[in-house]
Amino acid sequence: MLLIADDEQSDKHGYMRMVQGRRVDALIVAHTLDDDPRLAQLQDSGFPFLALGRSRLAQPYAWFDFDNYAGTCRATRHLIQQGHQRIALLGENNNQAFILQRRNGYLDALREAGLSDAWLRSVPATRRGGYQATLELLRLPEPPTAIITDCNTHGDGAAMALAHLGRLTGDNRVALVVYDGLPQDSIIETDVAAVIQSTRQGVGRQIADMVRRLIAGEDLASLQVLWQPEFIPGETA
């Protein structure tokens, strides 16, 4: 079973009825929060679950995650090494754990270099949101010379805005890094820099193996897996 944290219309007690009735062997909990009441409730009940993301819990639990902090930190450090000092981040506007981790990776890399975070923006995870935010940033008296997006949907919007202005490539380009790379249906043909995590097939196999081991009763401390992302500079960073 898959639980979605940000679905406000979902039955928040439905999964506990399944737990209490033992109608499932284990739960997979997605879109975790730093302080996630669902995980705490499941842990208190003693029911096996695998969290897709990390949260603050009193006892060990099974989780699978990507090092989201490392992804944006590495991308930001790369841009700083390229000479950029005004680096923007377009971040999703909610409090899911992976979003906060990506934001903190960006902020810490800036702090290390003594740079300002004045170009940090919270935007909806839409192409329109990324497009409009990019145009607004470039109208500033001191616009950013580089942009990182923590979501590939608004990252595609940012790429479209830069392409429209003739600033995605060439001598006057604004460096762009898109977390997860541009979507498959993007109309942008430029090889945009990306932070890449893994294929869906690879993730699916890993999760399936961990759930099998969880149901078999393996030690929870052995079911905590953190995968590292890869930074690909492409043509835009």
Q: How many beta-strand runs? A: 11
Q: In sequence order, what are the helices and strands, one letter per element? A: EHEHEEHEHEHEHEEHEE
Uncertain spans, ≥5 residues at pLDDT below 50? none
CATH class label of the largest domain: Alpha Beta
Placed side by side, the strands forming the largest sheet appear as: 6-5-7-8-9-11
What percentage of amino acids are in beta strands? Answer: 15-25%
Structural class: alpha/beta
Compute the number of structural domains.
2
Query: Which homologous superfamily in CATH is the superfamily of the largest domain?
Result: Response regulator
What portion of residues is helical?
A: 25-40%
CATH topology of the largest domain: Rossmann fold
* Gross morphology: elongated
Tell me about the largest β-sheet: 6 strands, mixed
Quaternary assembly: single chain
Distance between the termini: 40 Å
Mean pLDDT rating? 89
Rg of Cα set: 20 Å
- The CATH architecture term of the largest domain is 3-Layer(aba) Sandwich
Enumerate how many helices there are, as a single number. Answer: 7
Domain Periplasmic binding protein/LacI sugar binding: 2-217
Pfam families: Peripla_BP_1
GO molecular function: DNA-binding transcription factor activity; transcription cis-regulatory region binding
InterPro entries: Peripla_BP/Lac1_sug-bd_dom, Peripla_BP_I
